[in-house]
Amino acid sequence: MSSTPPPDRPTEQDFHRLLERTGAEIAQGLTEDEFESVEKEFGFRFAADHRLLLSAGLPVGKSWPKWRDGNARSLKAQLGWPSEGVLFDVEHNAFWPSTWGARPAQLKHALKSARYHLARVPTMVPVYGHRYLPGTEGQWGHPVLSMMQTDIVVYGANLANYLAAEFAGGAIEQAPVTVPFWRDLAS
Known about the structure:
Elements: H1 12-20, E1 25-27, H2 32-42, H3 48-56, E2 58-60, H4 72-92, H5 107-118, E3 124-128, E4 131-134, E5 144-148, E6 151-156, H6 159-168, H7 182-185
Antiparallel strand pairs: 1-2, 3-4, 4-5, 5-6
Helix pairs in contact: 1-3, 1-6, 4-5
């Protein structure tokens, strides 16, 4: 993914118009200080398009992350959802990618090893419900992923396409998954 904004990238106004179609209350966008606070507290960086969206307006309501004044435990759980889903499949569905080497025979050791590997994959940042973007500072245009355990599906070729498809009846455009590990799970 490019760290340079594409020439046809959405503007703050484009994102605000898309947010208005979500049906959510739209609060004032996050400030630079708020972005820094969230990123420092939770240990990730927003992708450039995700940052622009949340600068344009902060969607408030069911299934939207509460980046301003949210419960830290709840936000941490949302950030951990993708990895927790993988751990669930390791424990209950015999999931084990070959890139992790041989699966340990004892479940407790398999889970410990899985946690080790998952701690090294890119952080996925919630957009809405179980729709995620990678936390890749400065990058534009990653596809939005629907993440349920190890079932990873592209839900929009980029953030603008996702919002138009999910909330305004647009078509979901497909794009290759760009994030290591998660791209291997994408169907």
